Amino acid sequence: MVSVHLENGQVGLTDAPVPPRPPGVALIRLLAGGICNTDIELRRGYYGFCGCPGHEFVGEVVEADNPALIGKRVVGEINLACGTCKWCQRGLGRHCPARTVLGIVRHSGAFAEFLTLPEVNLHVLPDAVSTEAGVFVEPLAAACEILDQVQIPTGSAVALLGDGKLGLLVAQVLQASGLQVHQFGRHPDKLSIAARRGVTTEIARESMPEAEYEWVVDASGSAAGLQTAVRMTQPRGTVILKSTVHGTVPVDTAPIIVDEITLVGSRCGRFEPALALLAAGKIDVASMIAGSYPLTRAVEAFEHAERKGTLKILLTAD
After folding, report:
1. When you count CB atoms within 10 A of the terminal residue's CB, does the N or C end of the chain come out lower?
2. Residues 128 and 189 both lie in one domain
3. Please, what's the b/e burial string for 140-178 (b: 16 or more CB within 10 A of its CB; e: otherwise)?
4. Neighbouring-strand partners of residue 112
5. How far apart are CA 253 and CA 77, in angstroms?
6. Does residue 123 sit in the same domain as residue 183?
């Protein structure tokens, strides 16, 4: 089968065997996948990755122990937990120290003709959600995770830094939940996607508001984003960190300590709220698709995805 391969900063294609299917694991034929910033960081050396990437996907189940799954379009939670450790027993399988992660940590990814995932990780995609929109379930779930981690009172003002793929999803999720989102970005065309959903948008300036917001989300994707977010936060306010940046991020801890600011790291989330939002038509993801390439043109797709300002690039089955 055709499979994308990352190694030593290079993107290529390889002819790989169809992965075996152990008990309790489904064999899935890729329908569409999305290149995200994590995939780009993997190419740059994040996690010392070598292999097939890809964790945002929609596929069709071709083999499974559960016959009800066969032929269904599915999306999949990317963390494969052991199920027995103390973290798994607390319902924190996403933090299982023995976990593997689809397309990131010791589990071959979705950018191949076929992939495998445990059946317990799969969610059937509702008929109301297109295959292309379904590719956004995983990052949309990450956006929804904020609302599971922090209790933000309805109607509160929330500042959001960044107008990239995740930033636009976070803006729409928080706005749809009844918050007043003020999104700062550098691209009017991107900000317009959130603005159409009621988000207040503004071009980021060198001089940003200081100590103005109780809640600030950093989805800037830049090493400087945390420092800016801290400056914008009121004493005893909260900064939610959604950016994954390869390398060390310099932080001046003095204002965090003096102003008693809470930092919340935020990563993956539950798929159920993301699926519900997409099925209800509350999130515009169609406007975020910047291009689509067959799997055999993955090299070209990655080049497009890495161009500055590009939103979502899809890889599809030939």
Report:
1. C
2. no
3. bbbbbbbeeeeebeeeeebbbbbbbbbbbbbbbbbbbbe
4. 3
5. 34
6. no
| Cα 56 from Cα 19, distance rounded (Å) | 18
Q: Decide: residue 119, CB within 10 A, 0-12 exposed, 13-18 middle, 19+ buried.
A: middle
User: Closest Cα partner for 121 from 84, 167, 66, 168?
Assistant: 66
Could you give the 3-state DSSP secondary structure of residue 224?
coil
Q: Give 170-219 as a DSSP string.
A: HHHHHHHTT-EEEEEES-HHHHHHHHTTT-EEEE--SS---S-EEEEEE-
Tokens of 30: 């890729």
Q: Could you give the C-alpha distances from 53 to 8, 35, 40, in angstroms and in order? A: 13, 9, 10
pTM confidence score: 0.94
Q: Three-class SS of residue 76?
A: strand
pLDDT digits (tens, 9 = 90+) for 124-133: 999 999 999 9
Residues in the chain: 318
d(CA 318, CA 219): 33
Strand 262-265 and strand 233-241: the pairing is: parallel
The CA-based dihedral angle spanning residues 18, 22, 26, 29, taken in that order and rounded to the nearest 10 degrees: 0
Is residue 182 assigned to a domain? yes
Contact in structure between 243 and 220 (CB atoms under 8 Å): yes
| Domain region containing 15 | 2-136+285-316
